[in-house]
């Protein structure tokens, strides 16, 4: 610490020689104060604020001008360590005035937090800001969070009112931030973005092109799991290899348009009854006729689909539709369902396992989890068509 202070004093002397003594001292106080508050324990910061000796001022000034108060507060609020709240109280107790309702101050403070993607308990610190009347205005912090890959910041900001406005220049900068996130492979941040706001073609375009430029297969997979028809068409046009899994994710996404596009593009299908089973398992009744429109038959055993549908308690109009597609007269419904009870139970178990695997996909695609998919003919994990996850080259059975 003594060496650091000596170096800072020499730097201040150099600044004083070129910009004036007062300016050099001020620069030292600002830089040292922010660095110490963010990186050191509170006890160290307090010690730097105490007089060094007779006639010697403290390294840190007793009071910061208002224009610098937000910097010192941001350093305390988003500092490393568990004593950030004590630091914040200390900064404010020293008379540093921070105008929490000032839009520029709001943007600066939230942007400072979004710039620290690895900071622990970031939402808790954002909560503290919000409770002071400091609102996340505009999209500055959101753009920073996307560029830096801070998923916790993206999620919190979207949940608390931060969003890009319709102004063309602002929207363009927001789309650039999405592009940078995709190029960098910031999958958790992009996942938080998809969960927090509705993404249209204008958002998907930079995401897809950024992912392609950066070679980010996992980001492209996230896009496909969204079930957006424009995304599916884009991936097909750019040479994406389709597997039966695409149908399962398309059905589970709840997007009727995605199902119709998969049929339109001629993507290979798993067993048809499993597709209807996934729709029933997730109670996505609208996907049943969507599958029919996409040319997917009810399956080799329509009565099994009927039995599973009755167990799921489908609405009356869906029940009538299934009976019609299965070619079963209403008076024969009970007998057909009873005869296919075992097959319906087997279908429900397969569908349940597929849905579980779809939910686990989001975790397995996170950066740092070295998972790959290997197809086989066994179907150990519930995917129709067969296959299992490999983690670091080994079969992952979790």
Question: What would you say this structure looks like, in words?
Answer:
There is one protein chain. The protein has about 400 residues and is mainly alpha-helical. It folds into three domains: about 1-100, no CATH class; about 115-120 and about 130-225, no CATH class; about 230-398, no CATH class. The protein has 22 helices and three strands. The chain has helices spanning about 1-20, 20-40, 40-50, 65-75, 85-95, 105-115, 120-130, 140-150, 150-160, 170-185, 185-195, 200-215, 215-225, 230-235, 245-250, 255-265, 270-280, 285-295, 300-310, 315-325, 335-340, 340-365, and strands at about 370-375, 390, 395. It has a three-stranded antiparallel beta sheet with strand order 1-2-3, with no helix packed on it. Helix 8 packs parallel to helix 10, helix 19 runs antiparallel to helix 20 and helix 19 crosses helix 21 (about 335-340). The radius of gyration is 29 Å and the shape is elongated. It starts with a helix and ends with a strand. One of its GO terms (biological process) is sphingolipid catabolic process. This is Ankyrin repeat domain-containing protein. InterPro entries: Ankyrin_rpt-contain_sf.
């Amino acid at each position: 610490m003594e060496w650091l202070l000596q170096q800072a004093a020499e730097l201040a002397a150099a600044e004083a020689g070129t910009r004036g003594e007062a300016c050099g001292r001020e620069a030292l106080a600002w830089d040292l104060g922010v660095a110490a508050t963010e990186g050191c324990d509170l006890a160290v910061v307090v010690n730097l604020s105490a007089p060094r000796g007779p006639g010697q001022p403290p390294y840190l000034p007793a009071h910061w001008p208002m224009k610098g108060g937000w910097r010192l507060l941001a350093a305390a609020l988003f500092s490393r360590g568990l004593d950030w709240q004590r630091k914040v109280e200390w900064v404010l107790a020293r008379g540093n005035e921070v105008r929490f309702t000032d839009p520029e101050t709001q943007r600066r403070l939230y942007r400072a937090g979004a710039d620290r993607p690895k900071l622990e308990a970031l939402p808790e610190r954002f909560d503290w800001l919000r409770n002071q009347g400091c609102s996340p205005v505009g999209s500055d912090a959101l753009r920073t969070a996307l560029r830096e890959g801070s998923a916790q910041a993206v999620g919190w900001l979207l949940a608390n009112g931060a969003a890009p406005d319709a102004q063309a220049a602002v929207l363009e900068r927001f789309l650039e931030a999405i592009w940078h996130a995709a190029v960098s492979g910031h999958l958790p941040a992009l996942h938080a973005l998809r969960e927090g706001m509705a993404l249209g073609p204008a958002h998907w375009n930079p995401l897809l092109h950024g992912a392609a430029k950066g070679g980010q297969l996992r980001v492209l997979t996230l896009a496909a799991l969204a079930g957006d028809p424009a995304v599916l068409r884009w991936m097909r046009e750019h040479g994406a290899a389709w597997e039966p899994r695409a149908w399962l994710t398309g059905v589970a996404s709840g997007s009727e348009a995605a199902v119709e596009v998969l049929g339109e593009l001629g993507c290979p299908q798993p067993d048809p009854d499993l597709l209807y089973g996934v729709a029933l398992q997730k109670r996505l009744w609208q996907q049943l006729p969507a599958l029919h429109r996409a040319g997917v038959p009810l399956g080799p055993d329509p009565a099994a689909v009927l039995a599973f549908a009755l167990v799921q308690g489908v609405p009356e109009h869906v029940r009538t539709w299934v009976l019609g597609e299965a070619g079963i007269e209403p008076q024969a419904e009970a007998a057909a369902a009873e005869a296919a009870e075992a097959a319906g139970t087997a279908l429900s178990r397969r569908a349940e396992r597929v849905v579980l695997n779809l939910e686990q996909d989001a975790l397995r695609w996170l950066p740092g989890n070295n998972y790959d998919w290997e197809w086989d003919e066994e179907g150990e994990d519930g995917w129709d068509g067969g296959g299992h996850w490999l983690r670091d080259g080994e079969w992952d059975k979790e």
